[in-house]
Amino acid sequence: MPFMPVKFNSQKRVKLAQGLWLIYWLSVIVGIFIFSLGIFFKIELRKRSEMMDNNESHLVPNLLILVGLLACGINAFGGKVCHDSLDPVKFAKWKPMLKPYLMMCCGFNGLLLLTGLLCFLMQFAVYLTLAEGLKNSIKFYKDTDTPGRCFMKRTLDMTQIEFRCCGNNNFRDWFEVQWISNRYLDMSNDLVKDRVLSNVEQKYLMDSVPFSCCNPGSPRPCIQHHLTNNSAHYDYDHRIEELNIWTRGCREALFSYFSSMMSSIGILVLGTIILESADMAGLKYLTTALETMEDPENPECESEGWLLEKGVKETFGDLLTKMKTLGKGNQVDEGGDAQEAAT
Amino acid sequence: MALMLVKFDLKKRVKLAQTVWFMYWFAVMAGVLVFSMGLFFKIELRKRSELMDNNESHFLPNLLIFMGLIACGINAFGGKVCYDSLDPSKFAKWKPMLKNFLVFCVVFNALLFVTALLCFVMRIPLQFTLAEGLRSGMKFYKDTDTPGRCYMKRTLDQMQMEFRCCGNDNYRDWFEIQWVSNRYLDFSAKEVKDRIGSNVDGQYLMDGVPFSCCNPSSPRPCIQFQMTNNTAHYSYDHYTEELNVWNRGCREALLSYYGGLMNTIGALVLLVTMLEIGVTIGLQYVDSSLSTLVNPDDPESESEGWILEKTVKETFTDIMDKMKAMGKGSKVEEGEAAVATVS
């Protein structure tokens, strides 16, 4: 008893072939879209790789690029088969390839599922990489004369401006590092000497933040220095002041940006699985409908199409027996070889 | 003697109609492009209208939107006419409208050309609007408590950061106005009283700039205050310091942005004009070749196509005569009406 049989006449077959051809071209466009999303994600990771210690994993974007290219190829081939399916001569040359093609499509759907799951799971890895990377970035902010790190200041400033954030967890992270290079500190000055000696590591620490932490929405000009000293500024209370500098931490800001990107891509990939499954079902119906024509010479005759030739359980049982025979076949071969070697 | 006469047989006519139909669909997309460019330009002007005193002229983007819509309509109609041109019965219903339609197309092409020229010319009024608007913008920077101007600070800060510019002509413009609100000045402090007393208008002027002028690429933390005082900062010489704040003035930055945008739009509109002229000529050939069939009942017969039925001079004199005849006709009618009222 075939699984989900449907009767087809000539008109229905033509309609199915045309509809399926359109869906295949839609799938090609979706494949191109996934490819371009993979490239976009890769570029975004590269742009901010300095914030992540150049340590970020490019697995997800590379996988997306691969999946996008495969989707284009597979769906273009499927569309060609549909286009030729109404001409018996042309269809005859594609017929032998169809069974392995459908197996490949199943495998491709599995790959899509894996990619979709990775899009959601790899967010944890991104979070951890960001935490480490930002901590180091803040440490290297002042090293504008060290080769390999001279653009860290600019990158961090532009990130803070663009993502409207300050520091790793919040602005107080800047109080714990020296973010002014020693080249611009007058070491003969008493104030500087006091500050440097006031901590074990001899760092010039202060309760100030860089200008990129400033919030343009503040009604007053930005207060960057002596942030915790209320008397240093007129009419200022650092406990209730909210608009002066960005209160969000950059790790949270960057993570929410990347996680929303990865979640949207993941949902799109999972939607593509549904589209690809529809393609496979349609192609299976089309091929079975063309194979079971009662009178091969008469194109107007009726035929039947199905998804599986036998029921689901029977097909599954058949697959298992096939795999067992393959395994037994190997064992028999080995036994045969052993016998030959012995004799 | 017709202008640019070409002989047509059936195959050539079919090819001409198909080509012109294809070009018309291209032209519809070009019309959509012109419309969307007008919309984009309007949005860009609106975004920064605060910096132009809400005084900017929306004439050009409105014209582009209008021309884009008309182009879509005209080209869709022309495409339909071409599509029907190979079927004599369908073409018969369009034939009477074609002459007027072609005259309308010629007028539209002239307007499109004028629009393209305007795109290049309207840069000059924009320059004046920007200069005025930025000067006022900077004056109102501190008025974050005045309704209607409370967002000027944020707009100006974001613009300086986005366009990498400072002040109107350069950063010294900030030295000439008070950009700190009186609400945040301690009038009992001697320093404040000195500064206010030092100029005629009683303004708190200082040699400092807002944080949005800071250049993130500077190797040292941003020096915003006491910029002309070399002794206030360690190892600082304001004559040779180049990377500290942005050197460019915002008027120049905004003008080059809008100027580039207008130049691009003008170039694209010129290309669209040439495309429109091409399709108009194509339609004239289609119309004239179908009107001059040697044997009207035989679709295979030969025919001739042209751009103008007579030469340019003769066509021009014909038009002048027609206009004179129309003028005389009105005069004769007036004379008759006068005679009728008298008698």
Automatic annotation (TrEMBL), chain A:
Similarity comment: family membership: Belongs to the PRPH2/ROM1 family.
Membrane topology annotation: Multi-pass membrane protein
Location(s) in or outside the cell: Membrane
PROSITE patterns xref list: RDS_ROM1
InterPro entries, per the entry: Peripherin/rom-1, Peripherin/rom-1_CS, Peripherin_LEL, Tetraspanin/Peripherin, Tetraspanin_EC2_sf
CC terms in the record's Gene Ontology section: plasma membrane
UniProt organism field: Labrus bergylta (ballan wrasse)
Name used for this protein in its record: Peripherin-2
GO biological process, one term: visual perception
PANTHER family membership: PERIPHERIN-2, TETRASPANIN
Gene3D superfamilies: Tetraspanin
From TrEMBL, chain B:
Any one annotated GO CC term: plasma membrane
Membrane topology: Multi-pass membrane protein
PROSITE patterns membership: RDS_ROM1 (PS00930)
Name of a matching Pfam family: Tetraspanin
Bilayer-crossing regions: 20-41, 62-81, 101-121
Subcellular location(s) per record: Membrane
UniProt KW Transmembrane keyword: yes
Family statement: Belongs to the PRPH2/ROM1 family.
Name of the protein in question: Peripherin-2
Taxonomic lineage: Eukaryota, Metazoa, Chordata, Craniata, Vertebrata
